[in-house]
Amino acid sequence: MSSLISSIIGGAGSSPFLLFFAIVIGVFFLEDTTVVVVGLLAADKVFSVPFALFALYTGIICGDLILYCVGRLASTHPRLAHFVDHDLVAPFRTWLETRFVLTVFTARFIPGARMPTYTASGFFRSPLSKFVLTSLGAISIWTTLLFSISFWFGNATAGWLGPARWGIALIFLLILFFVGRHNLLAYRARKSELSVTNG
Q1: 54-77, pLDDT tens digit by residue?
Q2: What per-residue string of b and e applies to 83-117 under the rule 16 or more CB within 10 Å gives b?
Q3: Are 55 and 28 in contact, with CB atoms under 8 Å apart?
Q4: What is the sign, positive or negative, of the torsion defined by CA atoms of 171, 62, 120, 147?
Q5: 3-state secondary structure of 199
Q6: Which end of the chain is more exposed for a tag (fewer CB within 10 A), N or C?
Q7: Do 157 and 165 contact (CB within 8 A), yes or no?
Q8: 10 Å Cβ neighbour count for 54?
Q9: What is this structure's pTM?
Q10: What is d(CA 96, CA 65) in angstroms, rounded to the nearest whole number?
Q11: Who contacts 77 (Cβ-Cβ below 8 Å, separation ≥6)?
Q12: Cα separation, 106 vs 108, whole angstroms
């Protein structure tokens, strides 16, 4: 998967617009993978660090807003709107509202937690300004950290690992994937428990 994203971004050639667009699209679908790949490519001097970070930040915040808006739009659907204030989801809504900033912030650091958390934020009509500011704060820490580690790894191993470092990056991404899968299953189990408790 990392090699596929690398090929897509590399295929954009030297056009800054195409490179920017490729990175933005990449983070829409595979955020952490794209951040790692972009960090390695920046280490290989494919593009500058400021350009890479700006493209990553732009793509990620746009992706977060899309998830929020999908949730907000779903809350206006006739068949779903009654669930916004339904007793069935009241515990989850209360839990999110009372820990909103902490929940949105920490979801950035837990692979698999972002989509349900950010969509739920929109569905329960949480304040957009608070969502955006919290998301930006989390992005500035997590994305910068993940990019910096990848960039450092790319620089440190360029001379002695060469192409093999992509394999190591893939292993790291697989670990993130399984952590995300575990977190998603735990989230679904917690949601089921809340449903049974209030059923």
Answers
A1: 999 999 999 999 999 988 888 887
A2: beeeeebeebbeebeeebeebbbebbebbbbbbbb
A3: no
A4: positive
A5: coil
A6: C
A7: yes
A8: 13
A9: 0.73
A10: 18
A11: none
A12: 5
